[in-house]
Sequence to fold (454 residues):
Amino acid sequence: MASVESGCLKCSWFQVKKKQFFVNFITIMMFGAVGTLISCTIITFGVTQIFKRMDIGPMEIGDYLAIGAIFAATDSVCTLQVLNQDETPLLYSLVFGEGVVNDATSVVLFNAIQSFDLEQIDPSIALQFIGNFLYLFLTSTLLGVGAGLLSAYIIKKLYIGRHSTDREVALMMLMAYLSYMVAELCYLSGILTVFFCGIVMSHYTWHNVTESSRVTTKHAFATISFVAEIFLFLYVGMDALDIEKWSFVSDRPGTSVAVSAVLMGLVLVGRAAFVFPLSFLSNLAKKSSSEKITFRQQVIIWWAGLMRGAVSMALAYNQFTMSGHTQQQSNAIMITSTITVVLFSTVVFGLMTKPLIMLLLPPNPHKGTSSTNSILSPKSVTVPLLAQESEADLEGHEVTRPSSIRNLLTRPTHTVHRLWRKFDDSFMRPVFGGRGFVPVEPGSPTERNGHGWH
Fold:
């Protein structure tokens, strides 16, 4: 299940406008990393206080911490299907970016929890826990970046990977999957690794391939992402029909319902506890009103993270089953409660997502026409969504150098982006390729005949 989820992340990255992602990178990291930790803390504290009074069975401190990590993992697929990244680029980038970083943070946090004996917590254990969390996060990120750079170098420099659509597409897919497998073999976060591998590949590798390979990868990854999401929902639905787990809790149905209700309530509270405060902090650092997150957008961000999905299911099975079976009633209660929360949040909250967005953000009729035209235009077919950074942004509008420390502090994202662009153009792109650094090679009938895509 985790491998299918990572496939969704990898494929989804090839369909998002990465410029918006990096412009809002600090806010996304606040929501995805800091927000996940806050939500995990609140859920853990809540279940520790409430479950002990409910007497659901023997549970250790590690189980409570694992529950916090399990239900801090969001699934924002429903909201992303409704949002239009052309009409609401800020909101789409925040929901998408936070969802991906949240999944990675939850898995890394869960792995860090499992790697320690938490029966005796002291300051040294807490420091080791934080160190292990940072180690998993950084090493998984570096592995993904390395795999992405390796794929770019192979396709750009070596003959075996160039100017053949079959080889280019196969190398891109296999290198991404290889990064995930290596991460899992090294007990790292495969989701985080494949995510950053997708970032690097979209920035370097994708621009090194022929036009036919670009069109093929765009539609192939979109299709794989769609199919993977279908399999995830089918798996969750079929697992809900497993009689064995429900038979363990058949004599205590009230307890199972109460546990599900408590978990759902803590998810609501934990989500609100960081979305609105962190949005307020993010708005303080932005001067332009168009860059600020409005209250209605904050409500949608809060709502988008209420759904729980495959990551929560995978982590719950990892924590509360042994050899694929639930051996204790408390474990069975947690498994069935997780299934209940996932199904309830996906079906009920998912169905209410579109009406809520239509109510808070009514569609703009003037933007609808341009959006439709852009979808039908030839450029929208040949140029994937990941590459829709305008040439003006890349070539003609260089961000001005900050004249003081105050400018550096008030516009950190733009300053870091300028420094990165300078380093990227001087050192990275000449070696690994990318936009404008790879000569056009005839690799498809479109390129050979000099015609556009029809």
User: Anything to note?
Assistant: The radius of gyration is 23 Å. The longest helix spans residues 123-157. The chain is about 75% helix and 0% strand.
